Amino acid sequence: MSRNTAYKKGVVRSLKGIVIKVRFDQDLPDLNEMLYIDNEKKSPLLVSSLSHGDTAVCLNIGGDYGIQKGDTVTRSGHSLEIPVGTEMIGRVWDTMARPIDGKPQLDDEVLSKMIKRPIFAPAFQETSLKNRPDDILETGMKVLDFFTPFVKGRKIGIVGGAGVGKTVLTMEMINNVATHSGAISIFAGIGERIREGHELYKTLQDNDLLKTTAMFFGQMNENPVQRSLIGLSAITLAEYFRDDEKKDILLFADNMYRYIQARNEVSTIIDQTPAEGGYEPTIFSDVKALQDRLSSNENGSITALQTIYVPADDLSDPAVQMIQHELDSIIVLSRVVAAQGIRPAVDIMASSSSLLTPEIVGERHYALSVRVQAILQKYESLKGIIAIIGESELSTEDRDDYNKAKKLIQFFTQKFNVMEKMTGIKGEYFTREDTLNGIEEIIK
Ligand SMILES: Nc1ncnc2c1ncn2[C@@H]1O[C@H](COP(=O)(O)OP(=O)(O)OP(=O)(O)O)[C@@H](O)[C@H]1O
Ligand SMILES: [Mg+2]
Question: Where are the beta strands (DSSP E) in 193-338?
């Protein structure tokens, strides 16, 4: 029944951790081809490189134990591919599209009718689409909507060190944006805590969002092969909905830094020497290729929100820098801000967006943002002066701006809906209009 029966089999020659060398006397497989051990589990292997004309260097992608020297191996004749279609919605999958939500695999009959797509699809042609003001996706969060707009078809990143609120902010975005937009959401959990998958599932369920969301998880308990591929599986499904179903997609990835880390681990295991800042050089082109797939074309849009963990709070980390170049809006979360009790803990001066233009956000919003940034900038320098000479020595104008800045900083804090169950405090949602009116009120 499968495409592979005609191939001659390979034989496992050596095993070293997750690297398994398979010899083929004939019919050497292709790069990225899936192979299956002839055991009960049909343990999957992924061809990572070819050597000596007869050996496939493979990765034990399922992390299955019990594979032994001498086991025979069957070629699949295709690369790692996943079924795509509406059947994937409402469920949780691993990178090979095996269910990990405790529910059964899709029926054989259903599966056999579904389109299969390789997850290593080549990057497609991007057509740049001009954004109109109505393409702004309201997040209901004042500080984000004002400084780092979330625009259809664009990329927004949440950057920050450990525990500063990246995941909570992502959940709030899913909750607020997905509820209002009616788009299909795809979530990729990459190398983070397993518990967070359950929390996300629960949040989606509580908000009746499972019916429009598909989830892919390769969390920290998974082997690095799965963690390095899970994002690609998620993107493959997003591309299907965009190109075949002509839909608008919201893609959430937590955490894109873990993708790089996992890629690095895989490279180290298969013996490539890491270079620049501890990163293996080809990783940067992989990141670029992945980011290029997160885009829009004439069929539909992919709007992406990704979190980026900052190791040791060092924003100059080469991987962090690299991903930031790919983003249209960057929200920086900061430990210093969090320590002041400000939530969300956005470092406004460090955050930035290339979408904060009059064409996209409109003249009124743009003009306000210039004024507010000037006031906040001034506040930063006045803080130092006040520490030395005291507030009473400031000119009336400076003192006025200083107080406005304090009010603005307070204004940009808000309670989250997704925290409501934990804290008992009601979450808040602000329309962009509310936000602009509130700011005008303060700076008038
Ligand atoms: N907006 C918020 N309101 C209230 N509490 C928050 C908020 N954001 C974060 N927190 C608190 O901070 C904790 C850590 O947040 P979160 O898990 O989102 O951090 P993170 O940046 O994703 O961390 P990591 O790098 O470890 O993944 C949360 O469990 C929560 O208690
Ligand atoms: Mg997190």
Answer: 213-218, 248-254, 301-309, 329-332
Q: What does the buried/exposed string (b/e) look like for 44-58 if buried means 16 or more CB atoms within 10 Å of the residue's CB? A: bbbbbebeeeebbbb
d(CA 33, CA 44): 10
In the numeric block, the tokens 């949602």 are attached to 429
Cα 380 to ligand 2 centroid, rounded to whole Å: 29
- Atom 10 of ligand 1, residue of closest alpha carbon: 165
Which tokens go with 398?
């400076």
- Indicate whether 391 pLDDT > 90: no
Ligand 1 and 162: CB distance under 6 A: yes
Q: Is the pLDDT of residue 305 over 80?
A: yes
What confidence score (pLDDT) does residue 183 get? 87
42 burial via Cβ count (<10 Å: 0-12, 13-18, 19+)? exposed
pLDDT of residue 267: 87
Q: Which of 174, 138, 136 is nearest to 154 (CA)?
A: 136
pTM for the model stands at: 0.93
Reply yes or no: is the peptide bond before residue 344 cis, omega within 30 of 0: yes
| Residue 66: pLDDT band with limits 50, 70, 90 | very high
pLDDT of residue 1: 41
Ligand 1 touching residue 167 (CB < 6 A): yes
pLDDT classification of 181: cutoffs 50, 70, 90: confident
Q: Which atom of ligand 1 is closest in space to residue 309's alpha carbon?
A: 25
- Among candidate residues 13, 23, 116, 193, the one labeled active-site is 193
Residue of 21, 155, 166, 227 marked active site: 166
Distances (CA, A) of 367 to 247, 340, 377: 33, 28, 16
Query: Among this protein's residues, is 166 annotated catalytic?
Result: yes
Task: Report the run of H or E that residue 93 belongs to, with start and end.
Answer: strand 92-93
Higher-scoring residue by pLDDT: 421, 117: 117
Query: Is there a contact between 220 and 194 (Cβ–Cβ < 8 Å)?
Result: yes
